[in-house]
Amino acid sequence: MRELFDASVHMGHKTMFWNPLMEPYIYGKTNTVHIIDLKQSFVLLHNALNVVYNCVLKGGNILFVSTKNQAAEIVKEEAKRCGQYYIAKRWLGGLFTNWVTIVSTIKNIEKKSNMINNPDIKIIKKERMCIERNLKKLEQYFGGIHDMNRLPDMIFVIDAVKERIAITEANKLGIPVIAILDTNADPRGVDYPIPGNDDSVRSIKLYCRLFADTIIRAISDSFADKKDKNESVAEEEKIVKKPNNIGHIKKIIREE
Predict the structure, then answer these.
(1) Is 246 part of a structural domain of the chain?
(2) Are residues 79 and 4 located together in one domain of the fold?
(3) Residue 208 located in a structural domain
């Protein structure tokens, strides 16, 4: 709880910009700013972290989404740290609902990248510059999902107002949504709401770090479980292959 307070998670928007649907999560107001109820933030945050842990433990993947300037680099770094995917530049409409086309675009990026890096393929300077320019632009949009071969099992959104299109597309496809909701947000369409400040860099760093740490722990526990299962199977196989001592003793008695 103290960590949330120190990161200014409780500081909402000015009262004039609030969304009445966020009233249940508001503790009060000071001057012209709404104060978010940290007790609810704490409980809902831990609930969301548990959901993510169980999802990743079962082999699921998480897509981090935040295209606001102060969050983009943080989201990118933390998603990479825990081996997950991210959208940090701009959400292109149809990213989920038109996934087949997006996959085709990503494959085209890889094809062109391999082409310009292949010394056996001769490309004129002007064409090379054009391809490199397009690749750089596409890398900004798809760099965080270039190896995502299927839709994510869950998305984690910072700023539900700015990323409303992402939430809407996830809702259409039944992909669970975890989102940080400031006092100006609309909680509808969010499966696991976390009321909190979505503008403060300290708050954003805290959210992303907690989710990344949880994912890393889930991946580690998943590997440990698989190792234990493999060892258990190996032990069972040894027992099955072990000679039947009772039968061996009976055979000796008969021979005598």
Answers:
(1) no
(2) yes
(3) yes
In the block, tokens 């760099």 appear at: 143
Residues 8 and 30 in one domain: yes
Please state, in angstroms and rounded to a whole number, the distance separating the CA atoms of residues 75 and 9.
Answer: 17
Residues 11 and 73 in one domain: yes
Q: What is the pLDDT along the chain (256 residues), one digit of tens a residue?
A: 788 888 888 988 888 988 999 999 999 988 899 999 999 999 999 999 999 999 999 999 999 999 999 999 999 999 999 999 999 988 988 999 999 888 887 787 777 777 766 666 667 777 777 777 777 777 778 889 988 889 999 999 999 999 999 999 999 999 999 999 999 999 999 999 999 999 999 999 999 999 999 999 999 998 887 666 665 555 555 555 555 554 554 454 455 5
Segments forming the whole domain that contains residue 143: 97-150
Residue 58 in any domain: the answer is: yes
How is 38-60 classified by DSSP, letter by letter? HHHHHHHHHHHHHHHHHHHHTT-
Burial class, 15, CB count within 10 angstroms (exposed 0-12 / middle 13-18 / buried 19+):
middle
pTM for this structure? Answer: 0.82
Report the Cα 86 to chain-centroid distance in Å.
7
Total domains, the chain: 2
DSSP 8-state code for residue 35: E
Rounded to whole angstroms, the Cα distance separating 78 from 74 reads 6
